[in-house]
Amino acid sequence: MKKSFRDPSTNILKSWGFTEENQTGDIKREEADDFDLEPGKWQLIDSQWVPVDPASSAE
Q1: Residues 14 and 6 sit within 8 Å (Cβ to Cβ)
Q2: Domain of life of the organism in this record (predicted)?
């Protein structure tokens, strides 16, 4: 099973793969094998991946 890794302060997807760990502090979540969202462009909100709002990420 793939794992996604997201930033702990923004919940934005940083990376995904079949590894157990990414960077220290990243939040890990199991994903389906066909998971292929582009890192940096998706954010986990209420257990759903949603596109990052460009206005909020420009801060």
Answers
A1: yes
A2: Bacteria
Q: Is residue 13 part of a domain?
A: yes
Burial of 25 (0-12, 13-18, 19+ CB in 10 A): exposed
Model pTM above 0.70: yes
Angle at CA of residue 49, ends 46 and 54, nearest 5°: 105
Rounded to whole angstroms, the Cα distance separating 51 from 19 reads 24
pLDDT tens, position by position, 3-57:
999 999 999 999 999 999 999 999 999 999 999 999 999 999 999 999 998 776 5
In a domain, 59, yes or no: no
Residue 58 resides in a domain = no
